[in-house]
C-alpha cells in the first residue's frame, strides 16, 4: 500500500489497515467509537481508493452530516496533498441542493427549507428518468456520521445505495447518535434509533462487511477515559428505564470528577484564562450556555459562545479583501498575494494557498484565473460561501451545548451536571436515550482533564422550583420569564436580528456610513457590551404584529438597526394571547455582547448611495446574548 504524502503521520493500527485496504467495490460498515481516529482512517481510505484502487476523484463521493466534519475532512485531504485532495466532500444538505439545482427548472431551491430539499432530491434520485447521469459514474461512496441519519436524510441515503451498485464505506457510532429530536413526530422518533444500521444489515445481508475501530487516540489520561467504559451500555440503551439508569450512572461518574472550583476566586479564574490549555465548558441547553456566557463576561473572562452549525457568519476580512481596490471588478492572484499578509482575523488553518483555492472555487471569473468580485458578492448573498470561510475561529475557551461540541476535542473540559431526566419533559424512551448519548458525548471530549462545574444559583435556569429561563414556544427563542405567568423579562438575540439589506448610517446622516464602517472595523470587537435601544420614530404596528424599532448601541454610538425578524418575534413574545395587543415595550435590551463583526450582502444601490461602492458588500455587527428588558420608569406598566 502506498504511503506517499502520509509519511510522518501516525502509523495505522491493524484495525485501521483493515478498513483502508479493502477493495473499492466492498460494502463496508465501520463502527468507530469516540476518539478512535475515524477522520484519519477515512482520509487514508480515500487516498487508497485513488492511489491503490485506481479510482479517479470523480468516482468518489464523500457525504457527512455536519459542516464541521466537512471542513475537517477537506483540511486533512488538502494538508496531505495527493490526488485525493480533489475528492468531493459535502454535507447531505448541500449535495441534495446540487441535485435539485441541476434539475431545477424554474424553482429557487435555495429559498426552500432543508427538509423539503432532502425529500425532493430523494424523488429525483429514485427516478432513473430524472437522476443526474453522473451518478452512474460513482464507484465508491463514503458516508460519515451515519448515526445521525434520521428521517428524510436516512431515506435519501437508502435510496442512493439501493439505486446505484457501487462500493461504500459507512462510518458511525450509535453511542453518539444525538439528533433524533429532528424527527418531530413522537411515534416516528421512537423507531428511528439505529434504524439505518438495521436497514443496512438487512439490505446487504449476504455482502456487508462489518469492522470496528476500538482504540481511543483522544484520551491521554485515566480521567479523560473514565466515561469510555459506558460505551456499550450507551449504544444499547433503548427503554426509558435503561436510559434513566445509565444517565444516573454517567452523572455519578461526573460527580466523582474534581469540582473545578469557584470561578469568582481570582486564582481559579486565572487557571481558566490560561490560553495554553484549550478548554470547553459544556452544558445541556443553549439557555444554560447563554447564562454561563453572561456570567463569565461579568467576571471578565473572554470566551467564545459556540453557534449552531446553520448560524454562519462571514468574517470581516472578506469585505476588506473585496474592497482593497475600490471600483475593481476582479482580484488577481498577484494582488491577492500582496494583500493577504495585511488581512486581520484570518485563522491559521486557512493559509494563503488554501484561501485562494477556496475563493476561486466559488467565484472564479470566466478565464478561471481571477476572483470575480460580483460573483463573490452573489455567493455571499445566497449563502453559498464554503464552510472554510464561515467557521468560527479557534478560541482557548469555548462555551457550548453537548450537541454543538460533538466532533470537537479539548485538552480540558468542564461539564455542567444536566440533572436527572425530568419526566415532565421527557416521556419516551428514545428521547431519554438521546439525553444519555448527549451526556456521553460531553464526557468524551477531553484529551487530558475533565472536571465537574457547579454553577451558582443565579446562573441556573431554575429558581425556587420554577424554570425561569426556557424556550418561548411562540418564537423558538430562549427567554426570561417571571414568577407570574404573564411576566416577560428578556429574550435571546439571534443572528439575523440586525438589518443588513442597507448599510447602517447615523439617523438622518447618510454621509456617516463610511465613518461607521471604519468604526466597526477598528473600534468594535467580539465580546464588547452593546444594547438595543427603542426608537420612538418607529412605532409598533399592531396590524402587522410588529414591535417598535430599535437601534444597536455600542458605547454611545449607534451601529445597527434591529431587523423586522427581531421586531416580529418581540411582538409575539410579549403577546399574552392571540387577541392581546402589547402596549408596554422595553426601552432597552441589555446584557448583549458582540459576537462578531461580519461581512454581509445587501442592496447594491443602497451601498452606492452612501459611498460604499457598487459591490453591495459591507460590515455589520452581530450581537448575541440573553437580553434583559429594561423599561423607562415613565412608561405605564
Give the topology, please.
Blueprint: H1 14-20, E1 27-32, H2 38-51, E2 60-64, H3 67-80, E3 88-91, H4 92-102, H5 114-126, E4 140-143, H6 151-163, E5 167-172, H7 186-192, H8 195-203, E6 209-213, H9 231-235, H10 240-255, H11 266-272, E7 279-283, H12 286-298, E8 304-305, H13 316-322, E9 330-331, H14 333-339, H15 352-363, E10 371-372, H16 373-381, H17 387-390, E11 397-401, E12 410-415, H18 429-442, E13 446-452, E14 462-463, E15 466-467, E16 469-471, E17 478-481, E18 488-493, H19 513-523, E19 529-535, E20 549-554, E21 557-561, H20 564-574, E22 588-601, H21 604-609, E23 617-626, E24 628-630
Parallel strand pairs: 1-5, 1-6, 2-3, 2-4, 4-5, 7-11, 7-12, 8-11, 12-13
Antiparallel strand pairs: 9-10, 14-15, 16-17, 17-18, 18-23, 19-20, 19-22, 20-21, 22-23, 22-24
Helix pairs in contact: 1-2, 2-3, 4-5, 5-6, 10-18
Protein name: DNA helicase
Keywords: ATP-binding, Helicase, Hydrolase, Nucleotide-binding
Domain UvrD-like helicase ATP-binding: 11-406
Amino acid at each position: 500500500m502506498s504511503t506517499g504524502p502520509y509519511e510522518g503521520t501516525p502509523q495505522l493500527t491493524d484495525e485501521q489497515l483493515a478498513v483502508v485496504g479493502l477493495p473499492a467495490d466492498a460494502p463496508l460498515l465501520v463502527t468507530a467509537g469516540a476518539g478512535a481516529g475515524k477522520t484519519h482512517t477515512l482520509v487514508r481510505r480515500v487516498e487508497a481508493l485513488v492511489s491503490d484502487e485506481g479510482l479517479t476523484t470523480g468516482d468518489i463521493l464523500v457525504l457527512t452530516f455536519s459542516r464541521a466534519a466537512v471542513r475537517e475532512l477537506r483540511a486533512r485531504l488538502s494538508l496531505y496533498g495527493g490526488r485525493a485532495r480533489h475528492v468531493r466532500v459535502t454535507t447531505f444538505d448541500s449535495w441534495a441542493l446540487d441535485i435539485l439545482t441541476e434539475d431545477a427548472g424554474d424553482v429557487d431551491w435555495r429559498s426552500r427549507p432543508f427538509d423539503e430539499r432532502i425529500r425532493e432530491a430523494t424523488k429525483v434520485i429514485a427516478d432513473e428518468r430524472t437522476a443526474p447521469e453522473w451518478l452512474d459514474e460513482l464507484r465508491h461512496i463514503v458516508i460519515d456520521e451515519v448515526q445521525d441519519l434520521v428521517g428524510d436524510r436516512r431515506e435519501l441515503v437508502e435510496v442512493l445505495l439501493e439505486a446505484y451498485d457501487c462500493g461504500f464505506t459507512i462510518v458511525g457510532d450509535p453511542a453518539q447518535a444525538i439528533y433524533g429530536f429532528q424527527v418531530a413526530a413522537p411515534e416516528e422518533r421512537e423507531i428511528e434509533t439505529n434504524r439505518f444500521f438495521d436497514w443496512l444489515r438487512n439490505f446487504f445481508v449476504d455482502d456487508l462487511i462489518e469492522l470496528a475501530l476500538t482504540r481511543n487516540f483522544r484520551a491521554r489520561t485515566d480521567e479523560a477515559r473514565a466515561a469510555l467504559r459506558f460505551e456499550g451500555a450507551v449504544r444499547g440503551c433503548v427503554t426509558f428505564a435503561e436510559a434513566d439508569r445509565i444517565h444516573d450512572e454517567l452523572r455519578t461518574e461526573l460527580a466523582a470528577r474534581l469540582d473545578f472550583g469557584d470561578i469568582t476566586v481570582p486564582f481559579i479564574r486565572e487557571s481558566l484564562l490560561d490560553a495554553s490549555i484549550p478548554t470547553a465548558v459544556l452544558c445541556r441547553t443553549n439557555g444554560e450556555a447563554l447564562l454561563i456566557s453572561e456570567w463569565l463576561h461579568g467576571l471578565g473572562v473572554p470566551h467564545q459562545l459556540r453557534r449552531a452549525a446553520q448560524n454562519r457568519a462571514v468574517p470581516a476580512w472578506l469585505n476588506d479583501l473585496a474592497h482593497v481596490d475600490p471600483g475593481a471588478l476582479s482580484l488577481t492572484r498577484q494582488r491577492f498575494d500582496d494583500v493577504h499578509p495585511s488581512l486581520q482575523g484570518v485563522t491559521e488553518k486557512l493559509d494563503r494557498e488554501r484561501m485562494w483555492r477556496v475563493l476561486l472555487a466559488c467565484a472564479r471569473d470566466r478565464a478561471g484565473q481571477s476572483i470575480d468580485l460580483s460573483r463573490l458578492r452573489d455567493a455571499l448573498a445566497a449563502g453559498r460561501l464554503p464552510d472554510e470561510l464561515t467557521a468560527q475561529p479557534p478560541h482557548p475557551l469555548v462555551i457550548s451545548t453537548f450537541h454543538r461540541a460533538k466532533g470537537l476535542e479539548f485538552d480540558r473540559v468542564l461539564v455542567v451536571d444536566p440533572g436527572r431526566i425530568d419526566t415532565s419533559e421527557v416521556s419516551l424512551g428514545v428521547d431519554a436515550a438521546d439525553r444519555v448519548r448527549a451526556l456521553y458525548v460531553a464526557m468524551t471530549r477531553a484529551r487530558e482533564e475533565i472536571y465537574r462545574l457547579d454553577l451558582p444559583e443565579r446562573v441556573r435556569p431554575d429558581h425556587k422550583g420554577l424554570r425561569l429561563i426556557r424556550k418561548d414556544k411562540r418564537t423558538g427563542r430562549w427567554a426570561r420569564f417571571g414568577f407570574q405567568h404573564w411576566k416577560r423579562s428578556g429574550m435571546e438575540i439571534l443572528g439575523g436580528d440586525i438589518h443588513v439589506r442597507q448599510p447602517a448610517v447615523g439617523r438622518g446622516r447618510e454621509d456617516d456610513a463610511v465613518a461607521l464602517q471604519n468604526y466597526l472595523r477598528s473600534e468594535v470587537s467580539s465580546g464588547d457590551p452593546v444594547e438595543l435601544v427603542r426608537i420612538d420614530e418607529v412605532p409598533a404596528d399592531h396590524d402587522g404584529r410588529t414591535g417598535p424599532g430599535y437601534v444597536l448601541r455600542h458605547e454611545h454610538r449607534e451601529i445597527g438597526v434591529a431587523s423586522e425578524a427581531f421586531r416580529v418575534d418581540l411582538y409575539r413574545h410579549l403577546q399574552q394571547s392571540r387577541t392581546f395587543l402589547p402596549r408596554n415595550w422595553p426601552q432597552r435590551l441589555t446584557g448583549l455582547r458582540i459576537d462578531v463583526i461580519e461581512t454581509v450582502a445587501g442592496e447594491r444601490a443602497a451601498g452606492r448611495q452612501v459611498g460604499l461602492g457598487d459591490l453591495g458588500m459591507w460590515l455589520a455587527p452581530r450581537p448575541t446574548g440573553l437580553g434583559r428588558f429594561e423599561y423607562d420608569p415613565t412608561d405605564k406598566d
